[in-house]
Design brief:
The chain is mostly helical. It has helices at about 5-20, 25-55, 60-65, 70-80, 85-95, 100-130, 140-150, 155-170, 180-195, 200-215, 225-250, 260, 265-275.
Length: about 280
């Protein structure tokens, strides 16, 4: 049912691999752009959210999450390379045997590094702009960062699975619809869902940590806390994108053997229904 979508994803995955092989600086720059785009969206989200946070509004996190989808619009239409969505792309292409696991790992590592460098450079520019240099340690940005570094490891891992499950669906579903307006609405809604729900996204967390670390902050914001968060969140993101979207849709779109259909009444019934719809 989603074969055309899988073909598009495989084509994109191969182009990512080929670009990395042909010119690592070009690929790295695209990954850096994605990191910067995440930074732009976070600054907007926490600036808007702070207005509601200061008056203790219950809409604080809703308003903070509302604009974060802009980052994914910038990445999709601005030619950025994001680590979390690549967990889905390269998993599917490797299962389809158009890329290898070695190539997958190389793309993931390079993309993650590029995202980090992009966020780091964005944070340095932001620091010199003074945008967050006058905030207090009770600012919404710092409060969110403190919560992220104090959550139990198991919570972080499973929240990260949910986050990238939704993020990769925000990439997968737009491939199945026509029209930019529909694509943008789907992305905004799914990213809004993951952000509002309190799930954990490794690249977004990098931006939260680096921006809060270079702004007035409490003692809880430190390198040890960052690592406590980023390691389980990165692993959870890989599971969320690679397994719950990549492997799952690969499996669902593999041809069902005739012997399996003949021996399974449920498959017989579902096959008849599907054929009738056609």
């Amino acid at each position: 049912m989603e074969k055309e979508t899988i073909e598009k994803i495989c084509t994109s995955a191969v182009s990512k691999r080929d670009l990395l092989k042909a010119s690592m600086p070009h690929y790295l720059l695209r990954a850096m752009l994605a990191g910067a785009y995440i930074g732009f969206a976070l600054v907007l989200s926490f600036t808007v959210g702070q207005f509601f946070y200061e008056v203790h509004s219950p809409a604080t996190y809703v308003m903070t999450a509302l604009f974060f989808g802009i980052a994914f619009i910038l990445i999709l239409y601005g030619g950025g390379e994001l680590f979390t969505s690549n967990t889905m792309y390269l998993t599917i292409s490797t299962l389809k045997k158009v890329t290898s696991w070695k190539e997958t790992f190389l793309v993931w590592v390079t993309c993650y590094g590029g995202n980090f460098i992009g966020i780091l450079l964005f944070t340095l520019l932001l620091y010199f702009s003074g945008v967050f240099q006058t905030i207090g340690v009770d600012h919404l940005l710092v409060t969110v960062a403190e919560k992220k570094v104090t959550l139990p490891t198991s919570y972080l891992f499973f929240r990260a699975i949910f986050a990238n499950w939704l993020v990769c669906l925000a990439v997968w579903l737009p491939l199945r619809v026509k029209g930019d307006t529909a694509k943008i609405i789907i992305m905004m809604l799914l990213v809004f869902t993951f952000f509002t729900s309190g799930y954990e996204h490794s690249i977004a967390n990098l931006a939260v940590f680096l921006i809060s670390y270079t702004s007035p902050h409490s003692e809880l914001i430190n390198v040890a806390g960052f690592m406590h968060n980023l390691i389980p969140v990165t692993l959870g993101n890989i599971v969320g994108g690679g397994f719950f979207v990549g492997l799952l849709f690969f499996f669902l779109n593999e041809p069902i053997k005739r012997k399996e259909i003949q021996s399974n009444p449920v498959l017989i019934a579902s096959t008849k229904v599907f054929n009738n719809k056609l």
